[in-house]
From TrEMBL:
GO terms for molecular function: nucleic acid binding. It comes from Trichonephila clavipes. This is Transposable element Tc1 transposase. It comes from the Eukaryota. Residues 43-94 form the Tc1-like transposase DDE domain.
Length: 117
């Protein structure tokens, strides 16, 4: 988007609920892109439960962020699933696959940065 991409966001320990989703994704990333794109911005998520909480719905509405209508349980249609597949293949192809959470985090960040646009 906008000729670039964000850094890979890795949630620290704990479950991702609606509040964390709002605070760690919607406010710092989605709102920023909405501001840059203007009214033509259309947001796409994957219908995960944390994306459909009252908090997330209210935040999107208050920021005038339009959400793309999306079929539930349709991962084959979601472009991000191809990204996760790519990252998984790259991790599996490593000579020394990550064995700790820290190594996994670093490996994912490296592969994300090296992924072609």
């Amino acid at each position: 988007m906008l000729g670039s991409r964000t850094d890979l966001h890795i949630f620290d320990a704990g479950s991702v609920n609606g509040i964390r989703y709002c605070n760690e994704i919607l406010l710092p990333y989605v709102r920023l892109f909405r501001g840059a794109m203007g009214l033509q911005f259309l947001f796409m998520d994957d219908n995960a439960p944390c994306h459909r909480t009252v908090a997330a719905e209210q935040l999107l509405e208050s920021e005038d962020i339009k959400r793309m209508d999306w079929l539930a349980r349709s991962p084959d249609l979601n472009p991000i699933e191809h990204v996760w597949d790519f990252l998984g293949r790259r991790l599996a192809a490593r000579t020394l696959p990550p064995v700790t959470i820290r190594e996994l985090r670093l490996a994912l960040q490296d592969e994300w940065a090296a992924m072609p646009h």
